[in-house]
Write a structure and sequence with these properties.
Elements lengths: L4 E6 L12 E5 H8 L5 E2 L3 H6 L1 H24 L4 E6 L6 E6 L1 H10 L16 E3 L1 E10 L2 E11 L35 H4 L12
Parallel strand pairs: 4-8
Antiparallel strand pairs: 1-2, 1-3, 5-6, 7-8
Length: about 200
């Protein structure tokens, strides 16, 4: 019976698994299909562990610095309100949607760099104008909730409803023709058809 897990020495940092020099237990399939073929790990030996010691120290320092930066970022983002402006119909439905990338990019534009897409824990894309609470989570204990407000690009009451076809393309509506006034009545004195005169025989 084959083993379900195997011990490997990481030769580089692997997200959610470990850093260079770590000895980790992983599923056999993951090891054979990914880590070993990609040269990211190998069977552990004390000689190799010792050889990776200096690189491991550098990796530990990098991880610690990243952790400190994220702690500071989470503290700064307390009570953050991010406003995004989008096109929508007269009922508030967005013509596109607001995604994790939109929120990540929006935060970067207002000075909160370092929030990657995976850290934006948006359950599903936002498809209507409104206000939403969105969790930002880096690690299990590094989390903050921000407020995302999606506003229309122009007041709903001033917006004509748009229609889209099955392919999502805007249906162009024909422009309304200006009202044409009725032609003026023809002058009876000059343009009226002549009146037929019928002679009546004398008695």
């Amino acid at each position: 019976m084959s083993r379900r897990t195997i011990e490997l020495l990481l030769l580089e940092n692997v997200e959610s698994l470990g850093i260079i020099g770590d000895v980790v237990k992983v599923r056999t399939g993951y090891a054979r299909n990914y880590l070993l073929p990609m040269g990211m790990a190998e069977p552990p030996s004390q000689e190799r562990i010792d050889a990776l010691g200096a690189e491991r120290d550098i990796a530990l320092a990098t991880v610690a610095a990243k952790r400190t930066a994220r702690e500071e970022l989470v503290a700064r983002m307390e009570e953050v309100e991010l406003t995004l402006v989008r096109s929508c119909n007269d009922r508030g439905g967005l013509y596109g949607s607001v995604t994790q990338r939109d929120i990540s990019d929006g935060l970067a534009q207002v000075g909160y760099d370092g929030v990657d897409i995976r850290s934006v824990r948006l359950p599903s894309s936002i498809r209507r104008i409104g206000t939403y609470e969105v969790p930002i989570q880096f690690e299990t204990d590094l989390r903050v909730d921000i407020t995302v407000t999606v506003e229309p690009d122009q007041p709903l009451e001033e917006r004509e409803e748009m229609e889209f076809d099955d392919e999502g393309e805007l249906i162009e509506k024909p422009a309304k023709k200006p009202h044409q006034p009725e032609p003026a009545a023809e002058a009876a004195s000059t343009e009226q058809a002549p009146t037929e005169v019928v002679a009546t025989p004398e008695a």
